[in-house]
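Bug: token stream looks shifted between consecutive jobs. Job 1:
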Amino acid sequence: MDKISLLQERKARITEAGKELRAQIDALTDENSFVELSAFSFSKNDFYGEETDGEGVITGFATICDYPFYIIAQNFKVNCGGSSKANCDKIAKCLDAAEKNSTPVIYLLNTQGVQIGEGVTVLEGIAKVLMRATQLKGVVPQYAVVNGEVYGSLATLCAIADFTFFMKKSSLAVNSPLVLAAKTGKDVKKEDVGLAKSLDKTGIPAFEEEDMAGVKAKIAEITEIVSAPLIDAELNESFPALNETQNAATLAQIFENAVETGSLYAPEAKTYLCRIGGIAAAAVVFDGGDKPVELNADILAKVRTFAEFAACYRLPLVVFSDVAGIVPCCCANNSRVLKEAAEYLNILDTIDTAKIAVVYKKAIGLGYSLFAAKSAGFDYSCAFATAKIALFEDEKGAEIEFADEKADKAALAERYGDEKSDPVNAAKDGYIDDVIEPQFVKQYLISALQMLVGRTGGKAEC
């Protein structure tokens, strides 16, 4: 037997089976950097009676902007990207290598579910992959790309991953539209159940991109922040516009190299991976527009997940508050809002990442306790001179504090705001470290970050 000819034949067959997917991998990674692993994996599907080229999944390592990554890509051209015990073993092997070499992982997912004929065996394989991915969480960053239609149990990888990218018209669901249609007796379209815009309650979609070039750029930006916690930057900038207008858009100008994550859901809490004076940070900006944010389970889950990522990769957490506590409605009362608040507090209590609070508009009631209080673990807290910190909103506070006084309600509310909500009151008791002029906020933050994080990078100094 001519071994060279056999090798060439097998290589050609594998390459042809993954031609489109390999082009996508090339678009995602640096030129000629992809090195395939376990390329000559072949198993026979008993149901279809044919060999599965490369197990229907391509694995390997490559670089993106010179940073190393492991790549796991499902090949839809082979049995519709169906999961099997063999291809799950191949994925798990790649995850083992990622852990051993402390290297981030990128999943390119495109599957219709499991390969028919595998029975319980494939379920063991899926459990193995999901558990290995879970064990990697907080060890190395994981990125999932919904690269077409992703149905079945391996859709769970998108929930495990730190950041999930949706391509335009990509769809994600545990149960496919066909299964849902059969179950409900209704015509179920993928646009209604699986697009990024249809999953705004799940907390899964972090980004929606047009192509692999967009995914590559975002991953490179995030990696730069996580991997290089300190770079040189301007340290004495001021922002006079903040003295006139305090809102999320104006505030975001103080960030450098900012990447907003999760903008497709819970937009009242904007989450940014960024730099402040060259120091890598994770920033949360509450943005309620004309009114302070009223918390619900979705908002708190988003902040909790983001704080957990910051903790895992030793990024200081900076929270800009405009929060008035939990939304007063029956649906919130009968939801996970309190559980999410408790789990968020647990993150604050168990991490040693530097935590900084800036009350830039309002911190009312539980909004203060969760996102500005010293007793919640914030190392440094400051407030804009224009901000308000109080037990109640002005109108409600005036009704309680000045119940015996006969005067115009608006006048009493204004008086309550001036007398009871002034952040100087909290500063007098030592709960707020400083009341500052808004335009100088970046200078205060840089000073605090240099002290709390240290000039050596992302680890808090002992």
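Job 2, same session, no restart:
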Amino acid sequence: MTRILVTGASGHLGSLVVKHLLETESVPAASIVAGSRDPSKIADLAALGVETRAVDFDKEDALPEAFAGIDRLLIISTDSLDTPGKRAAQHSAAARAAAKAGVQRIGYTSIPKPDTSAISFAWEHRDSEAAIVETGVAHTFFRNGWYMENLFMSLPQAIGTGTWHTSADTGGISYIAREDIARAIAASLAGEQTGNAVYTLTGPRPVSNAEAAALASEATGKPIAVDTMSDEAYTAALQSAGLPGFLIDLLVTTNQATRNGDLGDVTDDFKRLTGRDPVRIENFITANADALAG
């Protein structure tokens, strides 16, 4: 029996991966292990027959035991964005422990173009991938496109004020729904696997901020103007809003990455893994119009 461990199982993506392993891929609950720093947060999975384990990437000495008996491990990248370098250290610790524990394949959630992307944390994904490769364990990298759900960081304010401030210019993002990413990852984890693999999971086309604003305006009935700024002016505006430095860097460099085309590539990897088309942004915005409008 192949045993699959999903880290970060209490999080948005991890919980969806476990859901699709169970419901879409029909993997027996006894073959799935859900990991979390606090297993009490995944008691609902334990009630379904899924084994739960404490998995804390900051406690490397305990990780080999946490990964014992696991054939396929999915390392979901952590949310430690406020401390540059912490995520790379956490993922590297997990990779080393997986090798010690005899894990046969390591999956890792990365981003498109980790070697060259302008996004402030791209280098951490680059180094995390390198650490996994260094173990010599077979690996699958899921280079996840920008979540449609990330629009909740920008559209509600734009809808509320009537203006979307951006320095992305006409650059586009090939948005993909988080659930679609989880669906594709689950299909890979449950499927036949040989050698190493890299999947870049994207939506069907790049969408500019102007088009996303127009779609949101149509769905909510509220006009949204797009204010295209320089990176310097955008940085100053974010500073005036009192945002922390790491978040300002993230937002500005994400706009740079969008402008550069780092998030605009389109692949058919999602369909190859799942046999279906990804959710379209038009449908996502329409379905979430009330929530986006607050």
